[in-house]
Design a protein that fits this description.
By secondary structure, this protein is of the alpha+beta class. Helices cover about 60% and strands about 5% of the residues. The protein contains 16 helices and eight strands. A hairpin with a 6-residue loop joins strand 4 and strand 5. Helix 7 (about 185-205) crosses helix 8 (about 215-235) and helix 8 packs antiparallel against helix 9.
């Protein structure tokens, strides 16, 4: 690999390695960017490596003079969704007696193939578009039930399902060049986008807002998750290089998802307390309490609410539910014991990132709404949001508000100009020579 070859001819490169080392070699070779001709006796390895597979069972190409033990040779594609195998040579004699002398192009003629059904018992079952269509049927039933009960949830359910399917499909296409290129700047750029979107989603859920709210949440989530994921990848798991996208992006996504939920719950609670219990906080401040003492109860309540869902999940995991990461590894053919260890590490990292992010967000909110002289900021600093839309709708509404504000500013300028002109005209009328003369007219006009 150090010589940057165009092709590598590999004869069982992982036969003498333990499973973990074999996976590392497979990932390294897949990300090398060169062509691979790979011979393997591991029936599950082709499904992990991918590409076109020429399967030669039990000596189809035997020594001259010896009849082949198996009369069939298969070519199989391991790309996702293609589980068919095709018989294209019934014996060695057919290969030698083909019309064009057994050239490779004749072997890959689709007209000669007869599809066979073969599935890797150790790998995941391929999901076709038809299977996805079957998964939509129960969701349609729930939407019809909502329509029948007049719950008005069918539209939101349909939009959520469409967004979920489209976003995950687009994610699959986006991650392909990131995983294959393995460039640190591309990986970190995508991670930055993930942090921005997670921060925007966490800020959008509370019904109240204040200045610098997004920056506080972005700083809390970004710094905490960056520190925790770096510790997990470098110290705990030992990934080399540390920016390996196969590890960094999925693990960071799980940290951000849980941190976003915890921060959103804590932020909603603390802002509601400041909006509805403002009089109590202001009373404590007026009696000499510091801002930490006056907000101690509301801070504790907010942090308990933020951490309760995660603590409940950790208490029942493995007994009631199997987490998503462990499920995905098991479906991918990994050892359940290895998958369990990965899940344990992930839960510990999630607990740390969610807790620290929530604590930083709640206390930064307190510092923003109570200044360093222990005074509560004016009530108009806490804005009540009427509705919460999607990220795109919020961006459009923000831009629309900016344009409308500029338009109102221009209209106000025109109105002020017109008023000045009217005032000048009124002054000209008062001094007009057409007014009838009077003895005290000059004095009245001056007054």
């Amino acid at each position: 690999l150090a010589l940057n070859p165009v092709f590598l001819l590999l004869d069982e490169p992982t036969s003498a390695l333990d499973p973990e080392s074999a996976r590392k070699v497979e990932r390294l070779l897949k990300s090398s960017g060169c062509g691979l001709v790979w011979v393997s006796h591991d029936q599950y390895q082709p499904g992990r490596v991918g590409g076109s597979i020429l399967e030669i069972p039990s000596g189809s190409f035997a020594v001259a003079g010896t009849p082949p033990l198996s009369p069939e040779t298969y070519i199989q594609s391991s790309l996702p969704g293609l589980q068919g195998a095709y018989t294209f040579v019934e014996s060695d004699k057919d290969l030698d007696n083909s019309e064009d002398g057994g050239s490779p192009s004749s072997l890959f003629n689709p007209k000669k193939y007869e599809p066979l059904v073969e599935e890797d018992p150790g790998g995941p079952i391929a999901i076709s578009p038809l299977h996805l269509a079957f998964a939509v049927v129960p969701l349609v039933a729930v939407a019809l039930l909502s329509l029948r009960l007049r719950l008005h949830l069918h539209n939101k359910l349909a939009i959520g399902a469409i967004r979920c399917a489209s976003q995950l499909s687009v994610l699959g296409w986006i991650l392909v060049p990131i995983f294959t290129s393995n460039l640190w700047w591309m990986t970190l750029g995508y991670c930055l986008i993930m942090i921005v979107v997670a921060s925007a989603e966490a800020v959008s859920r509370p019904q109240h807002a204040y200045s610098w709210e997004f920056m506080a949440v972005f700083f809390s989530i970004g710094v905490t998750c960056a520190a925790v994921i770096s510790f997990g990848l470098i110290v705990v798991i030992g990934v080399s290089p540390w920016y390996e996208p196969q590890y960094l992006i999925p693990l960071l996504g799980m940290l951000l998802g849980n941190a976003c939920s915890s921060v959103s719950v804590g932020l909603t609670s603390i802002l509601s307390e400041f909006a509805n219990g403002r009089d109590g906080i202001e009373l404590l401040l007026s009696l000499g309490a510091t801002r930490m003492e006056a907000t101690q109860d509301v801070v504790y309540t907010s942090l308990r609410l933020a951490m309760t869902p995660l603590i409940n999940t950790m208490n029942v995991v493995g007994i009631v539910s199997i987490p998503g990461m462990m499920t995905g590894q098991i479906l991918g053919g990994s050892d359940p014991a290895v998958a369990a260890r990965y899940q344990i590490i992930l839960f510990f990292l999630v607990a740390v990132s969610s807790s620290v992010s929530s604590i930083m967000t709640v206390y930064m909110t307190v510092f923003c709404l109570c200044d360093n002289r222990h005074r509560l900021q004016p009530a108009h600093q806490l804005i009540c949001k009427k509705s919460r839309g999607s990220l795109s709708s919020r961006i459009l509404s923000t831009l629309s508000g900016i344009f409308q504000k500029k338009k109102r500013h221009r209209q106000d300028g025109r109105t002020a100009t017109n008023r000045e002109e009217e005032h000048v005209n009124d002054g000209q009328d008062l001094t007009s020579p057409l007014l009838p003369p009077s003895p005290a007219g000059g004095q009245q006009q001056r007054e």
